[in-house]
Amino acid sequence: MTIPEQDAIASEILRQTAARGPERSICPSEVARALAGGDAGPWRPLLGPVRQAAITLARAGQLEILRKGKPVPAEEVRGVIRLRQPGDGAPEA
């Protein structure tokens, strides 16, 4: 299996999060499945590269990474995460 370029992975993350809108999130596995051609494709090896692309996008301010429903800094990403478009810039409570 060939791992897609980081730009292709980032584009798919941004496409899916834009389709959901800033109020809803996606799972990294959704991106991996789409890149692998669906559930039947070998998508699990893509999870690491998807997470890495998400961290890069978050550092650039193009994505929010959520853990337990709350945004986390890219440096603190671990465990189960979800991805969404950045919010409207309102301060976090």
TrEMBL record:
Species, as recorded: Roseicella aquatilis
SUPFAM superfamilies, per database record: Winged helix' DNA-binding domain
Protein name: DUF3253 domain-containing protein
